[in-house]
Design a protein that fits this description.
Strand content: 15-25%
CATH architecture of the largest domain: Alpha-Beta Complex
Radius of gyration: 23 Å
Number of strands: 14
Structural class: alpha/beta
Order of helices and strands: EHEEHEEHEHHEHHEHHEHEEEEHE
Number of helices: 11
CATH class of the largest domain: Alpha Beta
Strand order of the largest sheet: 3-2-1-4-7-6-8-5
Helix content: 25-40%
CATH topology of the largest domain: Spore Coat Polysaccharide Biosynthesis Protein SpsA, Chain A
Number of domains: 2
């Protein structure tokens, strides 16, 4: 740490553009660089001199550093930070600034860090917000500063591929129906097993139709690996603080307003996992909170107050979504299950019916296939399709 404690990050020179591979890189016989970018690009971040503190060299509080006007940049990168490791933050910021083929500005939202962040770099603006704002409100304050047509998210402990932004902007410019485009991600550190199943599921979800289908299961895009159309964010009201995760809520609101979402088939984001993450510690990320969020949007989007609702699955996930629906004023008419031991029992006051009952279900009924394991979702989807349920119209699969 330097004597004056000012955060300084110098970005490497821009490189030439990359070509978008048709599939994720699978180098054989051994890993090779692609257009100058090594396969372990998350470890190839050269950080300039970095020190952290709250005061400028003259002892006065450091002012915000501006970064260009609205016509000067293609994309604003929204990067929240709060008491993160200075080493991680330096790598995150430097990897972002080394992006090639785009004019960018980084909006660092310093959310009441104990040692306020200072960045001396002409493409970076630091916006300080205090503890009176909750996390989604802090993000929304940062969004209000963004003026570029596209807004990319980045986390202060992740690493960005140098071509992520260029390729995501290219897709957004080519398809004005898209409100958000993500990339595949890899987990940091490599040795951790946390979230690997979830990441594998996210990475397998690519097309807009797949995202629309999987959105009710869980959040199919990694938020810090996503770039948004700013007009879409503004249209849905930006980030909103609520009982569930602010990013999942945002994606659900984008979907409900007709915006499509997709993912590039390239691994262009390294997503760090550690014990202090809000995804592991915050009440908004519990299974019950996720079910409550889904129930609220399901009821509004599919007008479930006016439909007969059936839950296919009387196990843990079925009971969970049933409770969440009841909290929204929707009473499940029946549960359906394959387990003969459950048939005839009551779950939340509704009878558990055999699977054949679905063939004679009430007209206009909405069916929620509730299953906790990803391997069983294909079976449930095939079962619902055989019963005449059109996913996205007559029902969805949740988890």
């Amino acid at each position: 740490m330097g004597r004056h404690g000012v955060f300084v990050a110098h970005a490497p020179r821009s490189l030439k553009g990359l070509r978008l591979p048709s599939t994720s890189p699978a180098p054989t016989p051994g890993p090779r660089a692609v257009d100058g970018v090594p396969p372990d690009w998350e470890n190839d971040v050269v950080v300039g001199p970095v020190v952290v503190s709250s005061r400028a060299p003259d002892g006065a509080p450091c002012p915000d550093v501006g970064a260009g006007g609205p016509g000067d940049v293609d994309v604003d990168v929204l990067l929240p930070v709060r008491d993160v490791s200075p080493r991680w933050f330096a790598r995150a910021l430097t990897s972002t600034l080394r992006s090639r083929g785009v004019r960018l500005r980084v909006i660092v939202v310093d959310h009441a860090s104990r040692s306020p962040v200072v960045v001396v770099e002409p493409r970076v603006r630091v916006l300080r917000v205090d503890d009176s704002l909750r996390f989604a409100e802090a993000l929304d304050a940062g969004l209000a500063v963004c003026t570029a047509p596209f807004v990319a998210r980045m986390d202060a402990d992740d690493v960005m591929h140098p071509d992520r932004l260029r390729l995501q902007l290219q897709v957004l410019r080519d398809d004005d129906r898209l409100g958000a485009i993500a990339s595949r991600v890899k987990v940091l550190p490599r040795t951790t097993m946390a979230m690997r199943g979830y990441v594998a599921w996210q990475n397998a979800t690519l097309s807009a139709d797949e995202h629309a289908r999987e959105l009710w299961v869980e959040q199919p895009l990694c938020n810090p690996a996503t770039t948004f159309r700013r007009s879409a964010l503004v249209e849905v009201g930006g980030y909103v603080e609520g009982p569930g995760p602010e990013d999942y809520d945002l994606f659900l609101r984008l979907f409900r307003r007709g915006w499509r979402m997709a993912k590039l088939p390239v691994v262009h984001h390294a997503w760090r996992q550690h014990a202090a993450q809000t995804t592991r510690t915050a009440p908004a990320h519990t299974r019950d909170a996720l079910a409550a969020l889904k129930a609220r949007h399901l009821v509004a989007h599919f007008a479930l107050h006016d439909r007969v609702v059936v839950v296919a699955g009387a196990g843990k996930e079925g009971r969970r979504i049933g409770r969440a629906l009841r909290a929204q004023g929707v009473v499940v008419a029946a549960f359906v299950d394959v387990d003969p031991r459950k048939i005839g029992r009551l779950v939340h006051g509704a009878p558990v019916q055999p699977t054949a009952w679905l063939l004679s279900r009430p007209a206009g009924a909405f069916v929620l296939g509730a299953v906790g394991t990803s391997g069983a979702r294909g079976v449930v989807r095939a079962f619902l399709a055989a019963a005449g349920v059109v996913e996205g119209e007559d029902g969805v699969v949740v988890a």
